[in-house]
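lol ok so funny story. i was supposed to be doing the assay writeup but got distracted and ended up predicting the structure for this chain instead. priorities right. anyway since i did it might as well share w the group, maybe its usefull for someone
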Amino acid sequence: MLRPRIIPSLLIHDKGLVKTVKFKNSKYVGDPINAVKIFNEKEVDELAVFDIDATVLGKEPDYTLIEKLANQSRMPICYGGGVKTVEQAQKIFGLGIEKIALSSAVIDNPNLIFDISQRVGSQSVIVVLDVKKKMFGGYEVFIHNGKKSTGINPFDFAKKAQELGAGEIIINSIDNDGVMKGYDFKLIDKVRDVVNIPMTMLGGAGTIEDIKKAIDRYNVIGVAAGSLFVFKGVYKAVLINYPSREEKRKLY
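and the output, tada:
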C-alpha cells in the first residue's frame, strides 16, 4: 500500500553537510556520512542528497562521495548534482543509488529526462524544480542554486517532465527554504493540478505539525525537509532528528 514518505534533505557543499536560508548563507552542520549513519538508526523512509557545488562549478558528480553514501545507507537515496548525461546517471546507479535527481541539466536539455528514463526506468528519474514567486504574481523556475532565472513556468515544465518520462517531481520553494514557517501549499496545489506522478514537496517545514498538515492535505506524497531534521530548538542547535515509529503513526 502506498503511504506518505518523510524525507530528510541533505545539502553537500565542499564535501560537508550544510543548511541554507532561501538558498543563501550556507551554514556547516556536520559530516554527511555521519548524518547518514544516524538516519539509518532512525529508520528513515528515504534520503535526498543534493551536491549544490557540482553544477554551478561545472564539475562531474563526486563519485567517491556518492559511493560512500550508498555503502553506508540502509535506506533508498535520491541523489542530485552535476548529472548531465545518461552515462553519468548509469554510473551513479551502479554505485548503489536508487534515484537520480535532475534539475539544471533538464532545463537546458529536457530530452535528457526521456533518455535516462528509457535506459533505467521512469521510477528512478526525479525532476527537481527550484521555484520562486515572481514579483507581480505567479511562479518561476530558477537554476544554479537559485541564482539564475529561467523564465520558465514550473507548472508547464512539470507537465512536460511527466510527458518525457519523469517518475517523480520535487517542488522546492526557494522563498520558504530554511525559513521554517510551513510549506507553500498554493504552489503544490497548482502542480498537483497538472501532473499525476508522485510528488515531493520541499522548503519550509519547521515543525512536525507542518509535516502532518501536508499529509492531511495530500495523503500520499513525499514530505521533505532540511532544517527540521538537522536543527533542534529556537537556537537551532545542530541535532540530527526524525520522527519515531510512534510519531509517524500519528502523522498518517
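The domain at 5-251 is CATH 3.20.20.70 (TIM Barrel). The chain has a mean pLDDT of 95.
back to the writeup now i swear
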